[in-house]
Input
Amino acid sequence: MLASDVSSVHPLAARLGALIQLSDGERTALAALPTRMISVSAGQVILRAGVPSSTWLLVLKGIASTSKDLEGGKRQIMAFHLPGDMPVLMSTPDRELDIDLVAVSACSLASMDTVELVEACRSIPRIGELLWECALTMTSIQREWIVNVGHRTAVGRLAHLLCELVTRLEAVGLVQDKACDFPLTQVHLSQATGLTRIHVNRVCQELRKRGLLTLEAGRLILHDWEGLAQLGQFDPTYLHLPATRGTLAWIGDAVA
Output
């Protein structure tokens, strides 16, 4: 794990500034927070369950996941964290983490001390309100994941997850011409959907046969977004994305 001081625009100011116009005072307060840049390789554990942590993180590049390891080498992924996401919003030194935070791909993250961030929230309450809004969105996504794993068919389950990931990647400008880099493997998809890897492979083949998408060599290409969204019963409302139609372009038109 490599770290260096941040000297440019504060990453948290950039993230919260995407939600609302920050005042000069708010930007100054955020700029005063000591922040370090962390780089990790794919597969590396960033934060480990059972270990207290007072680190607050913001994903800048790459994809990470929160997960729990089970007996027999099984793992349940409970969330994927894309650029702009805050995987562990509030952790304290006296509370052990109950999840692992793992880099799915090579990742760059901004790291801050939670105690100092809490102090900033106390001095400027609107910063805390914006972080709370981000936490509520994360909770909304997790509720949808429970529905997805608990009640959708295997095909619908994977279709919904792919729709969500594409929508979130599009929102941060990482989808071009209905295609994007996609470092998630079938193992990751199986761990996120509760399906076996063999079952995920069959579903991916089925989605390709239906002419909905192509997923290979770390690239996801969408051929029929509307068909995929219908199959997964996907409604992006739960993502609470700002200016959906303006930022999501062709996705916004398809699901309107």
Observations:
- The two ends are 43 Å apart (CA to CA).
